[in-house]
Amino acid sequence: MAQLARTCAPLKGGAMIVAIARHERHGDPLVRGYVRHLLRAAAAPLFGMIRMWVLQGELRDAHEEFFIESRATPLTALWEQRYALIASLIASLIASLIASLHAPRSTSLMVHLIRYAMSP
């Protein structure tokens, strides 16, 4: 657990969740269970941001931890340029969360988000 704490100390958001997920494959069932509990707790704020984004179209990311960013954009370019995916966060983050959380509802939210964000 000390190694997990050292690994995660400088991280935030998706990077921290990915780092926690990497420790989930521990051989000790007690440690594995604890890491899964930590992973769910760490992912909860992110899933809250995803729900807010997908269901209400609002981006609330006070700590810049979400994989979508809002950009200052003139009204004429609002649709094309207002929001952008941070590709370096989304690919590894989604793969780790889907593989680790085993939550069908969360998975469907992620799929919906990807389809929405990537549609032309």
Automatic annotation (TrEMBL):
It comes from the Eukaryota. Its main location: cytoplasm. It is found in: Cytoplasm, Cytoskeleton. Keywords: Cytoplasm, Cytoskeleton, Membrane, Microtubule, Transmembrane, Transmembrane helix. GO terms for molecular function: gamma-tubulin binding; microtubule minus-end binding. The chain crosses the membrane at residues 83-103. GO terms for cellular component: gamma-tubulin complex; microtubule; spindle pole. InterPro entries: GCP, GCP_N. One of its GO terms (biological process) is cytoplasmic microtubule organization. This is Gamma tubulin ring complex protein 3. It comes from Chrysochromulina tobinii.
